Amino acid sequence: MKFKIAMAIAAVTLAQSAYAQDAGEGEKIFKKSCRSCHMIVDDAGEAIVKGGKTGPNLYGVIGRHAGSEEGFRYKKSIEDAKDKGLIWDEATFEEYVQDPTGFLKSYLDDSGARSGMTFKLKDGMADVYAYLVSVAPPAE
Predict the structure, then answer these.
(1) Which CATH number goes with the domain that contains 9?
(2) Which residues is 49 bridged to in the sheet?
(3) Which DSSP letter does residue 54 get?
(4) pLDDT in 10s for each residue of the chain, 140 residues
(5) Were 69 and a residue from 56, 86, 97, 107 both cysteine, which residue would form a disulfide, CB within 3.0 to 4.6 Å?
(6) What string of DSSP letters covers 94-137?
(7) CA–CA separation, 20 and 126 (whole Å)
(8) Global confidence as pTM
(9) Residue 53: which domain range?
C-alpha cells in the first residue's frame, strides 16, 4: 500500500514539475536548437517534429533508460550509463543537456567518458523537458 501511495505521489510530482514550465517555449527551443540532430516520431511513424538523425528519436525519451532507442547506435559512455541504470527524468535530462560529456564523466565516475552530443543547451532546459513530456506517448 505504501509503495502505491509513493508511486502516485511521484507521478503527480513529476507531472506538476514538468508542466510548471512552459512546454510551448520548449517546443520553440527544441525546433531551434535540437531538431538539427533529433526528431520526434511517434510509434506509428508520424512525425511530431521532423529533424535530423544524428541523435536518437526523442519520442518517449522521458522515463526511459538512456541508450535504449531501438536502431540507434550509441557511444560507449551512454551504453555504460544505461548499464548503470540511468533513466531520463527531469534532473538527469536537464543536467545532461547542459553539458553532456561533463554529466557522463560525473555519472560514470570516468574522466574518459564522452558523449556523442557536443551541443550544450544553456537556457530553457526545463522548458524543453516539459515539451518532451507533453509529446510523450500516453501512459499505459
Answers:
(1) 1.10.760.10
(2) 40
(3) S
(4) 443 443 444 444 444 444 458 999 999 999 999 999 999 999 999 999 999 999 999 999 999 999 999 999 999 999 999 999 999 999 999 999 999 999 999 999 999 999 999 999 999 999 999 999 999 998 76
(5) 56
(6) HHHHH-HHHHHHHHHT-TT---S------S-HHHHHHHHHHTSP
(7) 9
(8) 0.83
(9) 2-134
